[in-house]
TrEMBL record:
It comes from the Bacteria. InterPro entries: CTDL_fold, Glid_motil-assoc_lipo_GldK, Sulfatase_Mod_Factor_Kinase, SUMF_dom, SUMF_sf. This is Protein involved in gliding motility GldK. It holds the Pfam family FGE-sulfatase. Gene3D superfamilies: paralog of FGE (formylglycine-generating enzyme) (3.90.1580.10). Residues 50-458 form the Sulfatase-modifying factor enzyme-like domain. It comes from Epilithonimonas pallida. The lineage of its organism: Bacteria, Pseudomonadati, Bacteroidota, Flavobacteriia, Flavobacteriales. Transmembrane segments: none annotated.
Amino acid sequence: MKRILLIFLSASVVISCSKGSKGSAGKPGLKGELVPRGSSKSFIAERPYGMVPIPGGSFVMGMADQDFAGTPEKAMPKTVTVSSFFMDETEVTNAEYRVFINAVRDSIARGLLAEAAGEGGGEEGGNGGSIGDFAYASKKTGEEATPYQKFMESQGGRDGYDESKKLDWKVPLQYNTSAYPDEKYAEVLESMYLPADKRINNERIIDWSKIKYNYQWEDVASAVKDKNRGTQYLKKESIAVYPDTTVWVKDFSYAYNEPLFDQYFWHNAYKEYPVVGVTWDQARAYCDFKTKLKTDYNNSLKKKKQKSMRFRLPTEAEWEYAAKGGIQNATYPWGGPYLQDDRGCYLANFKPKRGTYIEDEKKGNYTYTAPVKKFPKNGFGLYDMAGNVSEWTESPYSNSTYEFSSTLNPYLSNQAYREVKKTIRGGSWKDAGYLLMTGYRDWERKDSARSYIGFRTIQDIPAGAGKFKRTTK
């Protein structure tokens, strides 16, 4: 009995002595209970700028109303459920896509300048007065590399990204030849332009075939199937990101569309028009860039934010659900079944009659594409889910897609990148009215670019998220 009492007293001493300790066993004062660290507040999903929340739900997917094309095997109706997500309220515009390609251009230019600068000699906070100011951030005079940077440099870096070769984005770039700081800078920048013997009318133009966006993504479906996640499942992509502006001529061999070929992507008159001439791979590269942009911003904050959910293309189930605007069996995004409102104005940008691309401007017709937000939004707040341009989806296209995909967030992920045919939705400015129906499916090869195909992005919303919070412009 005495021995038992002594052991009990010894344990009491150990416990009482550990009350003031700050060891790894937990917070003091919690009476030995297991209490998770961190705030107990619920997670609030931050709504990305220019996107609207689409609440999850169930709907009948497919041509549930009428099928003028007589091809029910393309869209066999079935009830499916999709989770919540954010979606771009409009198609990606020329102005938005130009931000992407200019960022890729600037990144390549800075990388070339940093390599040419070598050890530099520039100083932190340099204004680009010499090529030395463009040296890698870790090479700048007076800037001490972190222990991690030193270690990675000694190991030769790591595949995909070298911490010691971090670019200094604070130094302004100059593309105006009269503002070049020195001859070496001019030599580096000139390598990005078409050589003189390949220029038309001696116009100095960037060689956009060299402007490629490099990224990688994981084939999760194959990794899970093989029960062995590893680098062998990483897919590396190098995508030339400039849109194919020749589509305005190639798509219409016997039509005069040269002004659009020359001006549509770059002229400020078209900045709020949907970008076209973009392949499926280019659209996915844009999604990765958008994700990286948000991730880098979150990492730059002193108070770190939760890792951003990635941006991606919608599956065709998500696209169709969003297009219906919360209306079950909606023929068109506004419900239907008519293509005009009670005043006789068209509700979307499409070809109203054979050979008639523009019937009456007062009724809302456009010869080609229209600026975004020119037609009424649907019940979810989305514009141009019918007409204007068809839109890429993540999903592969085949007659068996509906049969084999799940009824919960249907998607054939293991075929997504292998299948050459991709589903496009929504109809376009050149299509007849019935092609604008929410359940109508069409396809295009993923390496094809068209004057009537664009895209919009979505971002998943965690199932446990609370109310949404707007981001500032």
